[in-house]
Amino acid sequence: xxxxxxxxxxxxxxxxxxxxAVLFTSGLxxxxxxxxxxxxxxxxxxxxxxxxxxxxxxxxxxTVAWATSFITVKGRNLLIGLFAGxxxxxxxxxxxxxxxxxxxxxxxxxxxxxAVSMTLAAGGGVLVLTTLAFTISAITGTRQSSATLRxxxxxxxxxxxxxxxxxxxxxxxxxxAARTGDPEVAYTTAGSLKPLHAVAMHAILVVPAVAWLxxxxxxxxxxxxxxxxxxxxAYTGLILLVGVESITGVSPLSPPVAVAIASAVAxxxxxxxxxxxxxxxxxxxxxxx
Length: 289
Prior knowledge:
Elements: H1 2-7, H2 11-37, H3 48-67, H4 76-100, H5 111-140, H6 147-180, H7 183-191, H8 194-201, H9 203-214, H10 221-248, H11 257-280
């Protein structure tokens, strides 16, 4: 089924998949460097940032190209091109600054560093605007796809917008703190929203993937739709719980017992639906789209 995604993809999707694979590989390379060298994983100067940007943007770019193939989008080639270009710029600039041993964000020490920080902020703006255009198309447009997939893609795009909005808030808070006070405060205050940003960002992959698998089962359409709603409810719960933790300054690794239980229930529900969908696809052969 996965091979068929590439086979049936349009040229623009294949380009996005290829670029996404390159970015993802760059993230893996940085992970390897960290493991081999024993360099620190902590702080704004760590190669960890280059690793996470490569992995996240590579995965997100490929996912957005795939997920939006199920909806009608005017100017889709241009929008995917802009999203891909912004993703590449973000990963390259963050990686270059990491290897230089200087912060990539909130760094206004030199004209060059200022240009990098402002370019990263502008790239984030491009990502927000293109995702907004995709989301509007998902609401108003149509395509030869199932109700389960359309619902899942809409939710994923809304969650991605929330993630990018959180990223914009992180940048805004960090820039204000860096301009008016100690840069270390900028990294601390902005970084508190990272868990929310990370969890919301990958809903565009998880929920549409569940819907895509369900469409390849023998389940009735209304049953598939109910299961997608369960997945959406579970993922929404995770986003809200992590969001509350981020805003209140509670670490996701050491939450209150009630929050930990609620997060576990939501995660188990999501994994349960996904596992059931994957298992059910074995009952009959299906086409990939």
